[in-house]
Design a protein that fits this description.
rod-shaped; four-stranded mixed sheet; 3 domains; alpha+beta; 10 helices; two-stranded antiparallel sheet; 6 strands; Ribosomal Protein S5, domain 2
Length: 285
Amino acid sequence: MSMTGFASHERNTDNGVIQVELRSVNQRYLELHFKLADAFRTQESQAREMLKAKLGRGKVECRINLAKATAEEGLELNHSVLQHIAASVKTASEYFPETQAVNMLDVIQMPRVVTAQVLDADVLAQDFVGVLEVAIEALIEARAREGEKLSAMILERLTEVEALVLTVKPMLPNMAKAYQEKLLAKLEEVKLSNDQERLHQEMVLYAQRVDVDEELSRLESHVHEVKRILAAGGMVGKKLDFLMQEMNREANTLGSKSVAIETTQIAMQLKVLIEQMREQIQNIA
């Protein structure tokens, strides 16, 4: 599951059009930011709980707006006030029969003749939850699609890592033999100089450098574990990040123990692949 994603949803309700936008990027923890219309200020805590229940990690920006109905749809005539005005006009006309007819625009502009529709808070809250739920699911789907791409990229790099390990293994006996011949030549020099301490140091160095089987085995083990975690799915970002650190450690050791340019180059290629995976894993929840 990637931490990167975008989703939007809107719904036309009796109280207006509710518009939701969710944007998510990578973050070590879950960090929520809200930009809500005034009508939804009281629902912020509920929105926070809904997002926390569904999203593991990521920096999420939640925008929720209420586009109210048009002026014509949002206004209503107050019939009781109009009836009172009409009755008053009729009565007044009996006293002033020569007065000109009433101007309807003037009547409409009178206080309380035209009233705005009052929002139904309970219905609005229910609509808010419904629209946000749909948007959250859409965001999860978007993050899942991005996660599939990240998983495919990581699997490709893992295949390359396995190929490099298989390449270096058959090379080790010949490399060890060549290094041993160089060491024997040095030992002959040490014998001539009768430097026992240097002789001991060269033997220890040889023992350390020729044995990289353990590092290669651990690399293979880490590769299999990464594949297993990816297949299992879920919130796996932190586990994968830890495994990348371990794989990088083995690649570093392989490079430090290198006795030939070939293994040095392979160690460098391994580090590049591991770093590429690590960068992408930063986006995984």
